[in-house]
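Bench notes, afternoon.
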Amino acid sequence: MEYSEEEFLSIAGLQHFAFCRRQWALAYLEMQWNENLRTAEGHILHENAHDSFSAEKRGDRIISRGMAVFSRRLGVNGVCDIVEFHASPHGVPIFGREGKWLPVPVEYKRGAPKENDADRLQLCCQAMCLEEMLLCGEIPKAYLYYGETARRTAVPLDEALRGKVAAMLSEMHELSRRKYTPRVKPAKSCNACSLKGLCLPKLCRGGSAADYLKKRLEEFS
């Protein structure tokens, strides 16, 4: 199965979906968004990493910034902060360059490494897009760079992580087709959510408006 461009979802949405399905739906289906200090700092970090569509060579690596990627099989598109092309016999030819080059995405994040898979899923999806676009072999690992530690972390792109990306995107496409925003599930993580003011987790946990009306009518019957 292949998705049309009209059905493409944002790769960046994967990390939001992994954090909270309702947050993803509010931001990407209902187009609601609130900036806070964390999101603003994240935008600045990404803008510095992108440096719009430039490329340079450092030793045995070619560094491309702000590279657009997509996958018809997964139904996603987005922009990689950085794609490093490493000299490798398992890579692909690049016009104007000798030898073969293996693409390796590097994603920049504002904070520190997370305990959940949110960032790793987004990075793995970028690598899967590059494999499909460039017809190269499997990219065995990629990197996450965290602004808080100023260090990059290698992420193995194993079958388990790839399967989780595919399964999560399938669920996202289903919700997108139905234009369905999942109900709130209050958790400790709500306090760190930039959409807390729009989501109103405490207000919404009481049930739907229909449930409220049904309850009130039962009280008068």
